[in-house]
Amino acid sequence: MLGLRLTAQAHRSRGATRYRWLAGAAISIGGTGIWVMHFIAMMGFDVHGTTIRYDVTLTVASALVAITVVGAGLFLVSAGEGHLPALLGGGLLTGLGVACMHYLGMYAMNMSAHVTYRLPTVALSVVIAVVASTVALWFTVRVRKAVWITLASAIMGVAVAGMHYTGMFAMEVTLSDPAAHVAGADAIDFLVPLMTVVSLITLTMLLMAVLSPSEAEQREDEELLERLRARRRSHHRSPLPPPAHR
Fold first, then answer.
1. Whose CB has fewer CB within 10 Å in the chain, the N or C terminal residue?
2. What is the pLDDT of residues 188-207, one digit of tens each?
3. Whole-angstrom distance, CA of residue 166 vs CA of residue 122
């Protein structure tokens, strides 16, 4: 929801300000929306008979991938002014990137087990990711009012979570050596820094969105500036009065 709010603000802005809003939306949607949902859901995954730990480097890399691909999709759609080719290209790029993020995050799991994937289910999860990303980017172009932003964010949340659990359903785990040492960090080790960073980022962006001028206020400011410019031009064009004769 916050990401859609930021993209709506971006489409009302111009120049470098627009790209700053889009960067914030990429962090909000890709980072706190998609990746955090993915990782918290991973914390709910358990395999009886083995401990699950996480490779810190790969886990952080998966978060950066999510933010990067969502940002690329948003910038592509914004540069293409929401036209269909840009929308489809951005949706494909973002969807494939989100799928890569998801499976990279799953690959970061270390356990005393052998992991394989059912390819048809993997393909289905990728299709869901591409479709969901395309719809999400369409929402960022079309949605402006609060009620539609709320509805769109609910649809996006269900779609992204559906992609995650479809991908998890594709996984098959076969235990190998339960006594073997499992390297990596516990999921709980990520929880406190994760919640702290997410809270700070979310609150900061929320304040930025709330305190920024609305569309009506921006329109009023632009009309006022235009009137001032017109008055200044009129003043410069008006002839000087003739000198008074004594």
1. C
2. 888 788 888 888 888 888 88
3. 8
223-241 residues labelled b (16+ CB within 10 A) or e (exposed): eeeeeeeeeeeeeeeeeee
Distance of alpha carbon 121 from alpha carbon 125, whole angstroms: 6
Q: 3-class secondary structure for 104-147?
A: HHHHCEECCEEEEECHHHHHHHHHHHHHHHHHHHHHHHHCCCHH
Q: What distance in Å separates the CA atoms of residue 35 and residue 95, rounded to the nearest whole number? A: 13
What does the pLDDT look like over 141-163, one tens digit per residue?
Answer: 877 777 888 888 888 888 889 99
Q: What is the pLDDT of residues 48-97, one digit of tens each?
A: 888 889 998 999 999 999 999 999 998 888 888 778 888 899 999 999 99
Closest of 25, 97, 24, 94 to residue 61, by C-alpha: 97
The Cα–Cα gap between 34 and 189 comes to 20
Q: Which two tokens stand for residue 135?
A: 């719809």
Q: How far is CA 220 from CA 14, 18, 209, in A?
A: 16, 19, 18
